[in-house]
Design goal:
CATH superfamily of the largest domain: Type I PLP-dependent aspartate aminotransferase-like (Major domain)
Low-confidence stretches: 15-24, 398-405
Strand content: 5-15%
CATH topology of the largest domain: Aspartate Aminotransferase, domain 2
CATH architecture of the largest domain: 3-Layer(aba) Sandwich
Radius of gyration: 23 Å
Largest sheet: 7 strands, mixed
Number of domains: 2
Helix content: 40-55%
Number of strands: 15
Structural class: alpha/beta
Distance between the termini: 47 Å
Strand order of the largest sheet: 2-10-9-8-7-3-4
Length: 421
C-alpha cells in the first residue's frame, strides 16, 4: 500500500514526542509536554447558555451550511477586536473563519507554496506549524535572532540571496515554544524591510493575549504598508479548543483566493460552533475571561520558576517570559531526549527541543508547558526532572530537604507524596 501514497506523505515528519508517550495511561505521570488549556477555567455555564441561544434564536441557520468565510456577525466581532488591539482598520470583509489556526496555516500553504519554495522563520518554531508547511514541499531557512527579535540584517540577506522566498512566518508575541517577544523597534524595522520585497508574512498572534507583565506591543500588522502581513489567530486558547474556531485576517485582494481554498477544503467551519461563539461574545465579556486565564497561568509560571531555582543544576538556564504558555530550558552538555527517557522512568514528561527545529539543533533544550498541570503538582514534577538530570550527571546546585522530625509528624499520604516527588 505504501507505493500508493503521495510523496508528501512519505516526507511528513512524525511527532516523536507523541509516539514515545503513546503508552497505557499513567495516572502518576506529570506532563509538562501537554499544552491543553486549563479545563477548570472553561466557561461551561456560559457556553451552555450560548448553545441554548443558538438553538432557540438561530435554529434555522445554525444547523445549516454557512458561507465559506463564516457568519457575518462573528467576523464583524473579530475585526473589531483586532482593530481595538492593533490600531488597524479591518472589517468583516477581511476575516475568514477557519477550523482552528492550524487550518489557517494550511490555507496559506496552499495559497502560496509550491514545492521547493522557501519559508523563512526564526527558530525554534512550533512543531504543528512546521508540519503544516512541510506538507507542501517547502524549504525552510532559519533566520538568526537576538532577545529583541529576528535580526534584520540576516533577514534582508536571506531575502536577497534566496531565489524562491514566498513567506516569512513570525510569532512576535511570546513565541512558541521559546516564550520570547520582539521589541517595538524590531517590529517596525521588520515591517520596513519587507516592504522592499515581494514576500508575504504570516503573523501568528495566538499568544498575544497572555501577557503577565510589561507593556502591550502592537503587532507587525499595525505597521504593514502594502497588505503583506496576514494575521493568524484562534479561540482555542482564550475560549475552548472543542469549539474549533480560528481566523485569518487578510487584505481585500487576497480574500477571494482564501475563500475559494476554504471552500475546497471543507466548505465552511461548523455553523453551529460559529453561532455558539458569536452568542458568547454577544452576551459575555471575553476580556474578563482572558484575565482569569492570565492570572492562573502567571501564578503557574511563577511557581514553575521558583521550583526550577530550587531544584535545577547551575548548568540549566531558563526563561521567565513576560507572557505566553511555555518555558524554554537549556542545559549545556545535556541531551534532552536522553533526559526524557530518564524522566519517563520517574513519571514526568516534557517536549525535547529538537522537535522545534527544521534543520537540526535544540538537542540540549526542552520545553515546559504551564497550562494543564495543577499547581500542587508543579514542584513535584520539577523535582522529578531534576532527578533525571542527576541520573545523567547533572546534579542540583541546591537540594530541597525536610527535617526528619517534621517528616515523621506527617500522615502517610503526605509522606508518600514526598517520597514520590
Amino acid at each position: 500500500m505504501n507505493s500508493l501514497f503521495a510523496n508528501r506523505i512519505r516526507e511528513i515528519r512524525t511527532n516523536r514526542i507523541r509516539e514515545r508517550l503513546d503508552v497505557p495511561p499513567d495516572i502518576g505521570l506529570i506532563s509538562f509536554a501537554s499544552s491543553l488549556p486549563a479545563k477548570e477555567l472553561f466557561p461551561v455555564k456560559e457556553i451552555e447558555e450560548s448553545v441554548k441561544e443558538a438553538f432557540t434564536r438561530w435554529q434555522d441557520t445554525a444547523l445549516q451550511y454557512s458561507s465559506s468565510e463564516g457568519i457575518f456577525p462573528l467576523r464583524e466581532k473579530i475585526a473589531l477586536r483586532i482593530n481595538a488591539k492593533s490600531m488597524t482598520k479591518y472589517s468583516q470583509n477581511n476575516i475568514c473563519i477557519t477550523t482552528g489556526s492550524q487550518q489557517g496555516i494550511d490555507i496559506l500553504g496552499k495559497l502560496f507554496i509550491n514545492e521547493g519554495d522557501v519559508v523563512l522563520y526564526e527558530p525554534p518554531m512550533q512543531l504543528s506549524v512546521l508540519m503544516a508547511f512541510f506538507n507542501y514541499g517547502v524549504k525552510f531557512v532559519e533566520i538568526a535572532a537576538d532577545e529583541q527579535g529576528m535580526l534584520i540584517e540576516d533577514l534582508e540577506a536571506a531575502l536577497r540571496m534566496e531565489k524562491q522566498v514566498k513567506m516569512i512566518y513570525i510569532c512576535p508575541d511570546f513565541m512558541r515554544p521559546s516564550g520570547k517577544s520582539w521589541s517595538m523597534e524590531r517590529r517596525k524595522a521588520f515591517a520596513e524591510t519587507i516592504s522592499d520585497f515581494d514576500v508575504m508574512v504570516a503573523e501568528d498572534i495566538t499568544f498575544s493575549d497572555f501577557r503577565y507583565e510589561g507593556e502591550t506591543i502592537l503587532p507587525v500588522a499595525s505597521f504593514d504598508k502594502k497588505g503583506q502581513v496576514i494575521l493568524v489567530g484562534t479561540f482555542s486558547r482564550i475560549f475552548c479548543p472543542g469549539v474549533r474556531l480560528g481566523w485569518l485576517c487578510v487584505s481585500n485582494e487576497l480574500m477571494e483566493y482564501v475563500r475559494n481554498i476554504k471552500r475546497s477544503s471543507d466548505l465552511s467551519s461548523s455553523t453551529l460552533d460559529q453561532y455558539i461563539l458569536d452568542n458568547y461574545l454577544e452576551k459575555y465579556n471575553i476580556e474578563n475571561h482572558i484575565q482569569m486565564l492570565v492570572e492562573l497561568y502567571k501564578e503557574r509560571r511563577d511557581l514553575l520558576d521558583n521550583a526550577m531555582r530550587e531544584s535545577f543544576p547551575k548548568a540549566a538556564s531558563y526563561s521567565k517570559p513576560e507572557g505566553g504558555l511555555y518555558v524554554w530550558v537549556r542545559v549545556d552538555g545535556l541531551n534532552s531526549r536522553k533526559l526524557l527517557e530518564k524522566c519517563l522512568e520517574h513519571h514526568v514528561a516534557f517536549v525535547p527541543g529538537d522537535s522545534f527545529y527544521s534543520r537540526g539543533g535544540g538537542d540540549n533544550i526542552f520545553r515546559l508547558s504551564l497550562t494543564s498541570i495543577p499547581m500542587e503538582r508543579i514542584r513535584a514534577g520539577i523535582r522529578r526532572i531534576a532527578k533525571g538530570m542527576s541520573a545523567l550527571g547533572f546534579h542540583p546546585s541546591t537540594r530541597v530537604t525536610i527535617n526528619p522530625q517534621t517528616y515523621l509528624k506527617l500522615d502517610k499520604n503526605e509522606q508518600r507524596k514526598i517520597l514520590l516527588s
